[in-house]
């Protein structure tokens, strides 16, 4: 396995920013931020009706910073509104408002060729992910993938009350597609480690399957392809680290959450060694 090699897949239209960055480290723990990006290609942007601010509100900005201390990182800069890597291939391009939280994404429907190009990126991503994970599996016998996302809790507007904390934990752990009994020795210490961390003087509220259940494509892909050796944990951070309406980050909160997540890496490595 190659350690500390950075692989960049660039925009085929010539954008200077990479679509996907994969950094390989010396550990069986992988952090991913596949919705961190907001980039869309020029051709796609020309057909979009959705305002940038509305699009970015439904993305997961700054999540790449939350995994910045993970030994192996996978960050995607391409917007989910061009192709959503956390949905099954047949639903990965939003073509109707029902697929995109009621938002009218398109001024003009993308052509069949544009949709095929987006889906080819979906295919390429999962091909690359399988290759990376298979390499880690060969070296360590297994791996943990921490699938980081974020979610909105002020959907009624910037001045309205936020969602009730009863239904919106600081961190929601999704376990829908995993064999929960098999991976309990890994997931439970992970939750415990995060719950003991603090944000602005208080303990983080970390609960499982409250706001989300972890039904995304990436965790499903891992558990289907590596049923005995791969544990994928869907981690949804409430957007307490930014203003979800203005898009302004709170770098202090980001730093604290980054440290909290980094503290789980040795916990996960140790727990994984104990799983037969």
Describe the structure.
The protein has 276 residues and is an alpha/beta fold. The protein has one domain: Zn-dependent exopeptidases (Aminopeptidase, 3-Layer(aba) Sandwich), CATH 3.40.630. Helices cover 33% and strands 18% of the residues. The strands form 2 sheets. It has an 8-stranded mixed beta sheet, sandwiched between helices. Strands 7-8 form a two-stranded antiparallel ribbon. A hairpin with a 7-residue loop joins strand 1 (6-10) and strand 2. Helix 5 (180-195) packs antiparallel against helix 8. The longest helix has 29 residues, at 112-140. The radius of gyration is 18 Å and the shape is globular. The mean pLDDT is 92.
Task: Chart the SSEs and their pairings.
Blueprint lengths: L5 E5 L7 E6 L5 E5 L8 H6 L4 H6 L5 H4 L5 E5 L35 H29 L2 E9 L19 E4 L5 H16 L2 E2 L2 E2 L2 E3 L8 H9 L4 E9 L12 H12 L1 H10 L3
Helix pairs in contact: 5-8
Residues in helix, %: 25-40%
Arithmetic mean pLDDT: 92
Whole-number total of structural domains: 1
SSE order, one letter for each helix or strand: EEEHHHEHEEHEEEHEHH
Number of helices: 8
Distance between the termini: 23 Å
Classification by helices and strands: alpha/beta
Principal-axis shape equals globular
- At CATH's second level, what is the architecture? 3-Layer(aba) Sandwich
For this structure, what is the CATH homologous superfamily?
A: Zn-dependent exopeptidases
CATH structural class: Alpha Beta
Radius of gyration: 18 Å
**Low-confidence residue ranges:** none
Beta strands, count: 10
Sheet of most strands: 8 strands, mixed
């Amino acid at each position: 396995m190659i350690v500390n090699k950075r692989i960049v897949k660039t925009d085929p239209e010539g954008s200077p920013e990479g679509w996907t960055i994969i950094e390989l480290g010396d550990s069986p723990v992988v952090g991913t931020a596949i919705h961190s990006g907001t980039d869309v290609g020029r051709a796609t942007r020309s057909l979009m009706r959705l305002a940038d601010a509305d699009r970015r509100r439904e993305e997961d900005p700054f999540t790449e910073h939350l995994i910045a201390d993970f030994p192996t990182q996978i960050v995607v800069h391409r917007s989910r509104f061009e192709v959503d890597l956390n949905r099954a291939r047949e639903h990965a391009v939003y073509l109707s408002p029902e697929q995109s939280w009621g938002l009218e994404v398109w001024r003009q429907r993308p052509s069949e060729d544009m949709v095929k190009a987006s889906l080819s990126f979906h295919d390429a991503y999962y091909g690359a992910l399988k290759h990376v994970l298979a390499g880690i599996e060969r070296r360590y016998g297994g791996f943990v993938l921490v699938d980081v996302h974020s979610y909105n809790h002020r959907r009624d507007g910037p001045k309205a009350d936020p969602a009730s904390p009863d239904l919106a934990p600081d961190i929601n752990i999704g376990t829908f597609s995993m064999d929960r009994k098999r991976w309990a020795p890994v997931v439970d210490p992970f939750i415990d480690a995060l719950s003991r961390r603090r944000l602005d003087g208080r303990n983080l509220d970390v609960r499982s399957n409250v706001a989300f259940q972890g039904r995304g494509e990436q965790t499903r892909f891992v558990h289907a392809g590596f049923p005995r050796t791969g544990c994928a944990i869907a981690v949804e951070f409430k957007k307490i680290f930014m203003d979800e309406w203005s898009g302004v980050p709170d770098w202090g909160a980001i730093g604290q959450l980054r440290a909290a997540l980094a503290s789980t890496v040795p916990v996960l490595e140790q727990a994984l060694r104990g799983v037969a």
